[in-house]
Amino acid sequence: MKYKKADRKSTGHVQRHRRFELRLSDEEHAQFLELEIALGMNRADIVRIWVLQHSKKMLVNTTEIMKLLDSIGTEIGRSGNKINGMAKQANILQQQGILQPSLIRDLAPLFTEYIQLQRRLERTFRHLLRLIRRQA
User: What is this structure's pTM?
Assistant: First the structure.
């Protein structure tokens, strides 16, 4: 059954008259075709959905992110230096016999937690840097 043009407009069909061209390498084209088949969508809809609905996720200022990551890394380094200074001072107090064991018992779990968080943060940094390098 064929529809009249008037019927098409009444079903919510949007007339699109602007053209957009995209150039791809052979490898990218093959990946795009695989995506088209896997999603069961045409190319125009895939591009439209990805660009218009995910644009806030996609468009990032990598220079600004790198500056922020650098400043966070600097602060992590400072925290590590302060912890080393505290450990050195604790060793001095221990050698003098004036270090209270309760202080060590209270601080040990905090140091352990700090080390775990620092390692997790370092893994996240490495992952972010890999992602940013791929975009640049």
Answer: 0.45
